[in-house]
Amino acid sequence: QVQLVESGGGLVQPGGSLRLSCVVSGSVVAVGTMGWYRQSPGKQRELVANIQSSGTTYYTDSLKDRFTISRDSAKNTVYLQMNTLPPGDTAVYYCYARLRVSTGWDNFWGQGTQVTVSS
Distances from the Cα of 79 to the Cαs of 7, 62, 70, 93, 103, in angstroms? Predict the structure, then answer.
């Protein structure tokens, strides 16, 4: 059974930083694009950033100056470094990955980790 497990969320003061991690575990043949979405109350889920297996990255324009996505392919792990956080970044952050499993390629999601930016 494939699982994506996020960690690193929590409460942080405005202007602070957090680093999210997401580990893929289970019977995985290959790992493709990995990334992060987020969802705030009353809003649609939005793409934050993703990173291809080649290392090519994509960011939502409004976040690219403060967020950095990276991955450790040997550990099947993707990271999201978030800096200079304002209260508007409060959301549940979801990890996702395009994975090749026994039945072929499919998209998998983590359970989400809460990030709260507040004084």
Answer: 10, 19, 5, 12, 27
pLDDT of residue 104: 97
Strand partners, 116: 11
Alpha-carbon span 81 to 37, nearest angstrom: 14
Q: Which long-range contacts (CB under 8 A, 24 or more apart) does 13-16 make?
A: 13/117, 13/118, 13/119, 14/85, 14/86, 14/87, 14/117, 14/118, 14/119, 15/84, 15/85, 15/86, 16/85, 16/117
Q: Is 64 left (phi over 0), alpha (psi -120 to 50) or beta?
A: alpha
The pLDDT tens digits of the residues spanning 29-82 come to 999 999 999 999 899 999 999 999 999 999 999 999 999 999 999 999 999 999
